[in-house]
Inverse folding.
């Protein structure tokens, strides 16, 4: 199979929303009149972002999921994406499940594959997504205000827990590993929540590199500081997927390391005024996405961690140190 057969077979489908899809020198997008285009790229490199033996269907899902997560963070509605792919060789046994995972998530979000590039080389997957958002309504990192509640969606730390197990640092029971691994390999982009938070949240971003490090970016962009209650974040690991008792053998430090600095969570981090609490709850409900208030935006720059009694937590966490 040559390059063009491969594109035709796995990555060419009729477009519905775009004016022109795969096959010409450019795709043509047709955003609704007056909308702003939200654009983001994310690259996944073998050995750096995923193991060589990662399930191809999950990899297809994840490659698009991490990009959709960026649109979600901005409150943008997915429109289309391009796929730049370097492959060591043409392998139908890899391409077929990869395309299946990729396009299933694309269909679930009405996000069309409209073009890309295909070349021989070490496995590398680069996607650019295009979304649309009404002018002035994009959620930005720079909008947090003093007094805002600080929220995260879903669960934190499961992906890091799975990574620790896959690297042989810890041992998890098979079903616990399977549940945590699903979060690592097939994250859920919080698109519906991002859309529901337009006009409600003051600021938002997605968590890809770990809560504390990413929060640092938001705080600096907004010129504010924050206080986080670590008795709230510790409960976000395992939430839903498996009982906390399944990881009861691990010390709190390890679990906090996962939730505070883990990475690969692809949850939304956002702030909203206390007066918006019922609106935030409604956004969580309509998007069927759990959200948890983990702290507060403060005027003093920097990030402070407290325990349930309000005492300062002095332990330093990896991504926290970058910011300290
Ligand atoms: P060009 O020579 O103009 O760069 P290509 O020959 O690379 O175009 O690609 C031919 C067509 O196939 C283009 O429309 C391009 O967008 C599309 N395409 C190439 N690779 C992919 C891919 N991996 N997924 C989707 N479309 C692709
Ligand atoms: Mg061309």
């Amino acid at each position: 199979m040559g390059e063009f057969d491969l594109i035709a077979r796995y990555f060419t489908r009729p477009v519905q929303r775009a004016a022109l899809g795969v096959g010409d020198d450019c795709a043509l997008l047709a955003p609704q009149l007056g909308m702003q285009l939200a654009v983001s790229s994310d690259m996944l490199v073998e050995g750096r972002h995923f193991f060589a033996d990662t399930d191809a269907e999950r990899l297809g899902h994840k490659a698009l999921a991490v990009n959709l997560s960026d649109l979600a963070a901005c409150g943008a509605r997915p429109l289309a994406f391009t796929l730049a792919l370097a492959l060591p060789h043409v392998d139908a046994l890899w391409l077929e499940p990869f395309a299946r995972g990729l396009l299933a998530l694309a269909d679930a979000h009405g996000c069309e594959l409209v073009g890309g590039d295909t070349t021989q080389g070490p496995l590398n997957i680069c996607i650019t997504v295009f979304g649309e958002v009404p002018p002035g309504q994009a959620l930005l990192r720079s909008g947090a205000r003093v007094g805002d509640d600080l929220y995260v969606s879903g669960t934190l730390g499961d992906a890091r827990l799975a990574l620790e197990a896959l690297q042989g640092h810890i041992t998890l029971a098979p079903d616990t590993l399977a549940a945590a691994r699903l979060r690592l390999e097939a994250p859920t982009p919080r698109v519906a929540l991002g859309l529901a938070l337009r006009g409600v949240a003051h600021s938002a971003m997605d968590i890809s590199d770990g809560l504390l490090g990413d929060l640092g970016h938001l705080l600096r962009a907004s010129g504010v500081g924050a206080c986080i209650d670590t008795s709230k974040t510790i409960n976000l690991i395992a939430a839903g997927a498996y009982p906390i008792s399944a990881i009861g053998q691990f010390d709190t430090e390890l679990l906090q390391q996962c939730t505070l600095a883990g990475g690969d969570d692809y949850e939304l981090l956002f702030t909203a005024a206390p007066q918006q609490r019922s609106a935030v709850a409604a956004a969580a409900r309509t998007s069927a996405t759990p959200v948890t208030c983990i702290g507060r935006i403060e005027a003093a720059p920097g990030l402070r961690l407290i325990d349930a009694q309000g005492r300062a937590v002095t332990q330093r966490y990896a991504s926290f140190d970058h910011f300290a």
Remarks:
- Residues 320-324 have pLDDT under 50 and may be disordered.
- Residues 7, 11, 22-25, 83, 85, 113, 115-118 surround adenosine-5'-diphosphate (ligand 1) (CB under 6 Å).
- The chain has two domains: 3-133, 141-306.
